[in-house]
Amino acid sequence: xxxxxxKALVPFVSVDNMMRLIHHVxxxxxxxxxxxxxxxDFKRWELFDKTPRVASHSDVGVIELMPxxxxxxxxxxxxxxxxxxxxxxxxxxTAFGLLADVYTGYPVLLTEMTILTALxxxxxxxxxxxxxAPKGATTMxxxxxxxxxxxxxxxxxxxxxxxxxxxxDVDPAATAKCxxxxxxxxxxxxxxxxxxxxxxGAQILTTCTADKQCATILTDNMVGSGxxxxxxxxxxxxxxxxxxxxxxxxxxxxxxPPQTRVEGEIQQMPEDFEVTELxxxxxxxxxxxxxxxxxxxxxxxxxxxxxFSALRYIRDRIKDTDFFLELDxxxxxxxxxxxxxxVQRAKG
Length: 348
What we know:
It is an enzyme of class 4 (lyase). The chain is α/β, with parallel strands linked by helices and 348 residues long. The chain folds into 2 domains: 9-115 and 305-345, ornithine cyclodeaminase, domain 1; 123-302, 3-Layer(aba) Sandwich (Rossmann fold). It has 11 helices and 17 strands. It starts with 8 loop residues before the first strand and ends with a helix. Mean pLDDT is 94; it is low at 1-5.
């Protein structure tokens, strides 16, 4: 199977085929490729339609749609975030996404995005760290050892040259899981009993917890000068991980301010709190890391353009492969005006 043999058929990448694709390409290469696609699209930032994600909140979680377009392709992701799901044997985050041709409006790709979101989130973190982390950083504290932790560690290794990861989670079983999964990665993996122990000697501090609450994973006195903080756990209203004092001492970098001010760490701060947009750093319009004393903070909430980049990558990568199925999603009557006639013919 190569490309769909009929214009009414849409390529669909299932969970099984996504896993096959990752093993075929290699996870390090996938991370590097995704980071390249994401950085390319950040450089085209001003071409995109941009809107904060459309969110439906409940007491137990959130369901979101994340749309964007560069004028030629349109993409969206459906994603949920339900921290309580883990206790019920379910994933905290699940997702799927679609890419369409703007000229016809026809879908050109439907894909699982639970795995792909984990990959693109990690690739984004590492792409940003490449611009903001201290030069020569080799050690990361990974605070929160859930579903995202291995991806974050491997992306930092592939893209930034990370050599050591120090793990901490309130649940020792989560740390043991992460350590076991990274055993043969080439990383020096250290399981820690406290967050304070985890950050010892780390130049990159990644926080990724799931509880939907305003928590203080890092207190102000835990963060010394010169580090890069990769804050990816605060991603909806009422959910934060950092003490406000850390934000006031840091240079804060964000994806899309109107979304981050509602969902990110900076929801704790005044509306005029100063932030820098990452696309401006990537294009050299604004400074990133200036010196070895500066604290840089990526207030990551995830933005639709990153998903668009991931969808573009999968569309391109599955060409001339068998890593997709063909779905009969689109009506294709002989006469485009005679949809009813097409339905009637099915009676026979």
